[in-house]
């Protein structure tokens, strides 16, 4: 399986401050990775197969005004059958898929659509249905979409954790005890690795 190429060092240093990370990622304007064969979008399948399931931890709930200010995001949502009228606070959410610290935590963050029926909170572990392999010049749908909350942030019987468990490590990924029983597999290529559930 091929994953997206790694972001350039300039991007990593630019996003070293959490406030800047939220401001930039929250507006869905981190779609480019210099050196990739083709431009890709975080609102789409930029690191896992289209149609697969993956996990993320909610890091930022994007306000409606920020979504509407981003033409790429609006067009991608429209191509997914979501009109501007349906866009509200939290229609787009940023989730981290790597932890904890370092440039990769920001550089690998995923953006996904949340329907108005589901209310997420920062810290929730959520399942995302990966969208199409969207490209920047011609935004298309479908976009990444939240399917369900797998574990609320205040769950006292948590089965999910950042793996490996050493807290001083960067680049840790989400793992939940039920994954292998449900058919999730660890896919990796080079430095990138994620637990995903792929329809085969």
User: Runs with pLDDT <50, length 5+?
Assistant: 1-38
Rg over CA atoms: 16 Å
How is the main sheet built?
7 strands, antiparallel
What's the count of strands?
10
Mean pLDDT: 79
Which structural class do you get from the secondary structure elements? alpha+beta
The end-to-end distance, rounded to whole angstroms, is: 13 Å
Walkthrough of the structure:
The chain has 200 residues and is α+β, with helices and mostly antiparallel strands. Helix content is 17%, strand content 26%. The chain contains five helices and ten strands, in the order H-H-E-H-H-E-E-H-E-E-E-E-E-E-E. The chain has helices at residues 9-14, 18-26, 64-68, 71-79, 103-107; strands at residues 53-62, 92-96, 98-99, 110-113, 125-129, 145-151, 160-163, 172-176, 185-189, 192-197. The strands form two sheets. Strands 1, 2, 4, 5, 6, 9 and 10 form a seven-stranded antiparallel beta sheet that branches. Strands 3-8-7 form a three-stranded antiparallel beta sheet. The longest helix has 9 residues, at 18-26. The two termini are 13 Å apart.
Keywords:
200 residues, alpha+beta, 3-stranded antiparallel beta sheet, 10 strands, 17% helix, globular
SSE layout:
Elements: H1 9-14, H2 18-26, E1 53-62, H3 64-68, H4 71-79, E2 92-96, E3 98-99, H5 103-107, E4 110-113, E5 125-129, E6 145-151, E7 160-163, E8 172-176, E9 185-189, E10 192-197
Antiparallel strand pairs: 1-2, 1-5, 1-10, 2-4, 3-8, 5-6, 7-8, 9-10
């Amino acid at each position: 399986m091929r994953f997206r190429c790694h972001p350039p060092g300039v991007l990593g240093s630019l996003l070293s401050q959490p406030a800047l990370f939220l401001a930039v990622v929250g507006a869905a304007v981190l779609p480019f990775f210099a050196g990739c064969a083709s431009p890709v979008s975080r609102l789409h399948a930029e690191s896992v197969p289209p149609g697969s399931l993956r996990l993320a931890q909610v890091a930022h709930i994007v306000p409606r005004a920020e979504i509407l200010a981003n033409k790429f995001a609006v067009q991608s949502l429209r191509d997914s059958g979501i009109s501007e009228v349906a866009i509200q606070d939290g229609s787009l959410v940023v989730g981290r898929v790597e932890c904890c610290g370092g440039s990769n935590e920001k550089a690998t963050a995923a953006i996904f659509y949340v329907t108005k029926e589901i209310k997420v909170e920062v810290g929730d572990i959520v399942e995302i249905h990966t969208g199409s392999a969207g490209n920047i010049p011609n935004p298309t749908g479908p976009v990444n979409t939240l399917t369900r909350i797998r574990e609320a942030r205040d769950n006292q019987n948590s089965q999910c954790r950042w793996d490996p468990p050493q807290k001083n490590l960067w680049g840790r990924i989400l793992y939940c005890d039920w994954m292998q029983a449900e058919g999730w597999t660890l896919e990796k290529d080079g430095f990138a690795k994620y637990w995903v559930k792929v329809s085969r």
